[in-house]
From TrEMBL, chains A, B:
<dbReference type="InterPro" id="IPR002314">
    <property type="entry name" value="aa-tRNA-synt_IIb"/>
</dbReference>
<keyword id="KW-0030">Aminoacyl-tRNA synthetase</keyword>
<dbReference type="Pfam" id="PF03129">
    <property type="entry name" value="HGTP_anticodon"/>
</dbReference>
<comment type="subunit">
    <text>Homodimer.</text>
</comment>
<dbReference type="InterPro" id="IPR036621">
    <property type="entry name" value="Anticodon-bd_dom_sf"/>
</dbReference>
<dbReference type="GO" id="GO:0006433">
    <property type="term" value="P:prolyl-tRNA aminoacylation"/>
</dbReference>
<dbReference type="InterPro" id="IPR045864">
    <property type="entry name" value="aa-tRNA-synth_II/BPL/LPL"/>
</dbReference>
<dbReference type="InterPro" id="IPR004154">
    <property type="entry name" value="Anticodon-bd"/>
</dbReference>
<dbReference type="GO" id="GO:0005524">
    <property type="term" value="F:ATP binding"/>
</dbReference>
<keyword id="KW-0648">Protein biosynthesis</keyword>
<dbReference type="Pfam" id="PF00587">
    <property type="entry name" value="tRNA-synt_2b"/>
</dbReference>
<dbReference type="GO" id="GO:0005829">
    <property type="term" value="C:cytosol"/>
</dbReference>
<keyword id="KW-0067">ATP-binding</keyword>
<dbReference type="InterPro" id="IPR050062">
    <property type="entry name" value="Pro-tRNA_synthetase"/>
</dbReference>
<keyword id="KW-0547">Nucleotide-binding</keyword>
<dbReference type="InterPro" id="IPR044140">
    <property type="entry name" value="ProRS_anticodon_short"/>
</dbReference>
<dbReference type="InterPro" id="IPR002316">
    <property type="entry name" value="Pro-tRNA-ligase_IIa"/>
</dbReference>
Length: 439, 439
C-alpha cells in the first residue's frame, strides 16, 4: 500500500481523552476513532490488525475441532426470559423495541441463542460432542466506557459453546479450549496466564480467566511466577489425546484473580521468591456450567439408554477487539507501538527518504513491487515529507521492519533495514534486504 | 470436514414458511435458521458461503483501489439530524435509547458516519481521491420481512463511499465501482445487468442498480437482451485508464428498472427481437450524489486555489447476505442448489457408500487426506447412512463435485466422479480423480 493513497490519519499530540497508553497509541496511530461513547470506527490500519487477530483465533478454534457459524447481533427477549437472565442482566443489556413493539436486545453474549439453535436440531447423543463458535459484534451498555477498545460498548468477541452428553466429556471439551487459548494468545506474542476465576453472570461451576500482565490492568492477580514464562503447547499438540497432564501442569500452580484469591493458600503453596502479585488484563474467559441453560431451555438429547438428558455445556470467550489494546499495553515503547509480526498490519514500512528523486523513487518502486509480489505486506511511505516525520510516523505505527532508502545509500549500493523491536539497524544491498524480509 | 463431526441439519420436507426457492433450499440445506422475524443465524454451511462471497467482493474492491475499514453497527442520532435524514427515514430505521437515554440507531447505511470520519481527518485536495468501504451488518426494520435472506432485517452489506474534489473526478470513482461490480458478480457466476435506477432515500443525481434476472425477482425490469450475456471486464482491466468506453458500451443500450422505465424509448431504441422484460433481483446499487451529505455535514477540503469546497461523493452498496439467495435463485434444479465453484462451501463432497467397511473407509480416508492436503475443501460423508440419503443430501447442498467410493468400484480399481451442474458421471482411478480435482 502506498501511503499517498491510504487513509492513515496519525496524530502528533496525545489526545486528552485517553488515559492509558494503548488508547493513546491507537488514536495517534490512526487505528480507531470514537463515533459515540465507547463505540469506535476501525480505520484501515486498526482494521487490518483486528482481522489478523480474528484469523489467529479462528485457526486455533478450528484446530481444536470447533465449528464456525454466525449468529445475528439482535436477539429476541423471549429466549432470555426462558433462561431467567432477561431481568437479572441489568442495564448493561441494551434493550430495543422494533416497529411492532416486539422486545429485542443487542446480544451481550449468546448462551441462550446457541442453546435454542442446538435444541431445535440435535436430538441424540450420537451427534455429540459439538463445539460451535462465532466471531460477532456484541454490545454491553457500560455505564462508563473507557480505555478505548479495552472497555468499549460495541466490541468484537469470539464465543464458543460446547455440548456434551456427560460431565466427563464436557471437561474434555473445556480442556481443549484451555489449550486452544494458550496457543492463540502465544501466537499473538502474549504471555497469557490461566487463573481460577469467578463465573459472574454466565454462571457455572468452573472457570478460568486468561490474563496478561500489564500495569494498566483492571484486575489484581496473584500467581506463581513459573507460570509467566511457561511455553504454550506447540503444533504437535494432539487434541484427541489426554490433555489432563498439560492442564494440570498449569492448574496445579497457584494463580487466581482478586475475587478468588486466598492469601493463606498463596503463601502456603508458593515459595516466597515465586510469589507474583500484579495487575492483569483479561483477554479470555472460559466456563463450564453444566445444565444451567440446557435445563430451562429444554436442550435434551437421548442417551445410549434412550432416556432424554439435558446436555452439559460450557462457553468460551475471547475479546478480539480488546486484544488490540492488550497487545499494545504489552508491547510498546516511548516512540509508539511494537507489533508482533503475527498481528502487524504490515510487515514492512518502506521509507523513501527523497520522494521526487528519480533514482530513489525507482529503487523504492522496485523494492515495493518485489516484496509485494513475494507476498510481503508493505506500507510504502512515498509522500513528499521530511525524513524525520517519516521515521517518527513509522515508529509510531510500529511495523516490525523499516526499510530505508535514500540517495546517499543508493550511491554506495546499500539500503538500511531497521528492526522496530530492538532498534537494530543494518546496511545491506537491496537484494539482501529483500531476501531477509521474504525469509 | 467429516460430516459425522459437522453441524449440518438438513430437512427432507419443504418448510411451510418459505415462499421462494432460495429460502426453501437455504433452510433445507441447513444453511440458515430464523431466530426472530427477518433475522437469521448462519449455520456452518451458510457461513462458509457468506465468507466466500464477502472475500470476492473485498478482492474486487481492493483491486479498484478502495480501502477497507470498519464502522460500528450503532450510530448516534445526532449525525442523522445534521443530514436531515433522522426524521425522514421513517420506521425502517431501528431507533434505540441507551441507558443514559441517548438517542442511537442501528445503521441502515453509513453516509453520515463516513462523512463525519472523513471531515475530521481530511482537509486538502491533495488527499483525494479516496474510496473507503466496509462490510458490516446493517438493520432495516422491514414491515414484512420475507423471502429469507433476500429481504431480511439484519443483513450484511458492503458499502463504499468515494470522495473527490470535483464532479469529473467523482464520475471516475463511480466508473471504477461500476466495473468492479461487474467483475465481482461475474466471479460469483452471476450475470448482473446495470440499469438506470431511482436514487430513493440515498438521494443524488445518477444511479445504477445491478440486477440479475430471476422469476422470483421483486422488480420488473426492461433491457436490451444483448446486455444479458455481455462478459464482464477481465483481469486485464486497468483502473487507471479511461473507463468511459467500457461503461458506454453498456449504458448506451437500454436497461431500466420499473421506476425509470420509458416504454416509448424502449420501443424506439431496442429492436423488437432484443426487447427483454423480466423480473429481476437487485444485488448492487451505486449512487453519485455530489454534495448532498458533504454540504450539510461540512465536509470541506481546500482546493488547489486554497478555497474550501464541499467534497463530491458517491456511495456503492452490495447486498452480501442477499447474494446467497440471489445465486441460488439463479442456480438450482429440482434436487437442490448448484453452487458455482467460486462460492461453494466445499468443492467436493466425498461419499462413502459403505461406512464401516475397512477397505472403503481406508480408501476414503486416503482421498480425504490427499485432497485436503492439496488445499481442496472436502466435505466427507462418513456417516453410517444408506447410499440414497447420502446422494440426495449431496445434491441438496449442491457442492460442485461428488466423489463416490464404494466396495464394488474399489474391486475394479475405480471411484465415481459426478459433476453436480451437469449430472455427468465418470468412472476413473482414485489417482485420476485426485488429479482432476486438484487440477
Amino acid at each position: 500500500m502506498r501511503l499517498s493513497n491510504y487513509f492513515l490519519p496519525t496524530l502528533k499530540e496525545n489526545p486528552a481523552e485517553a488515559q492509558i497508553v494503548s488508547h493513546r497509541l491507537m488514536l495517534r496511530a490512526g487505528m480507531i476513532r470514537q463515533t459515540s461513547a465507547g463505540i469506535y470506527a476501525w480505520l484501515p490500519l486498526g482494521h487490518r490488525v483486528l482481522k489478523k487477530i480474528e484469523q489467529i483465533v479462528r485457526e486455533e478454534m478450528d484446530r481444536a475441532g470447533a465449528i464456525e457459524l454466525l449468529m445475528p447481533t439482535l436477539q429476541s427477549a423471549d429466549l432470555w426470559r426462558q433462561s431467567g437472565r432477561y431481568d437479572s442482566y441489568g442495564k448493561e443489556m441494551l434493550r430495543i423495541q422494533d416497529r411492532h413493539e416486539r422486545e429485542m436486545l443487542y446480544g451481550p453474549t449468546n448462551e441462550e441463542m446457541i442453546t435454542d439453535i442446538f435444541r431445535r436440531e440435535v436430538k441424540s447423543y450420537r451427534d455429540l460432542p459439538r463445539n460451535l463458535y462465532h466471531i460477532q459484534w456484541k454490545f454491553r451498555d457500560e455505564i462508563r466506557p473507557r480505555f478505548g477498545v479495552m472497555r468499549g460498548r460495541e466490541f468484537l468477541m469470539k464465543d464458543a459453546y460446547s455440548f456434551d452428553l456427560d460431565e466427563a466429556a464436557a471437561r474434555r471439551s473445556y480442556q481443549k479450549m484451555f489449550i486452544s487459548y494458550l496457543r492463540a494468545f502465544s501466537r499473538m506474542g502474549l504471555k497469557a496466564i490461566p487463573m481460577a476465576a469467578d463465573t459472574g453472570p454466565i454462571g457455572g461451576d468452573m472457570s478460568h480467566e486468561f490474563i496478561i500482565l500489564a500495569e494498566t490492568g483492571e484486575s489484581e492477580v496473584f500467581c506463581d511466577r513459573t507460570l509467566v514464562d511457561m511455553p504454550a503447547p506447540g503444533d504437535e499438540v494432539d487434541y484427541e489425546a489426554d490433555l489432563t497432564p498439560v492442564i494440570e501442569q498449569r492448574t496445579s500452580l497457584y494463580a487466581a484473580t482478586d475475587e478468588k484469591h486466598d492469601a493463606a493458600k498463596f503463601e502456603a503453596d508458593v515459595p516466597e521468591g515465586n510469589r507474583l502479585s500484579a495487575r492483569g488484563i483479561e483477554v479470555g474467559h472460559i466456563f463450564f456450567f453444566g445444565t444451567k441453560y440446557s435445563e430451562p431451555l429444554g436442550a435434551l438429547v437421548a442417551g445410549p439408554d434412550g432416556k432424554d438428558v439435558p446436555v452439559q455445556m460450557g462457553s468460551y470467550g475471547i475479546g478480539v477487539s480488546r486484544l488490540l489494546g492488550a497487545i499494545i499495553e504489552a508491547s510498546h515503547d516511548e516512540d509508539g507501538i511494537i507489533w508482533p509480526e503475527s498481528v502487524a498490519p504490515f510487515k514492512v514500512g518502506l521509507i523513501n527518504l527523497k520522494s521526487g528523486d528519480a533514482d530513489t523513487d525507482a529503487a523504492c518502486a522496485k523494492l515495493y513491487a518485489t516484496l509485494t509480489k513475494a507476498g510481503v505486506e508493505v506500507l510504502y511511505d512515498d509522500r513528499d515529507e521530511r525524513a524525520g516525520a517519516k521515521f517518527s510516523g513509522m515508529d509510531l505505527i510500529g511495523l516490525p521492519w523499516q526499510l530505508v532508502v535514500g540517495p546517499r545509500g543508493l550511491k554506495n549500493g546499500v539500503v538500511e533495514l531497521k528492526e522496530r523491536a530492538t532498534g537494530n539497524r543494518e546496511e545491506l544491498s537491496a537484494d539482501a534486504a529483500v531476501k531477509k524480509l521474504i525469509g
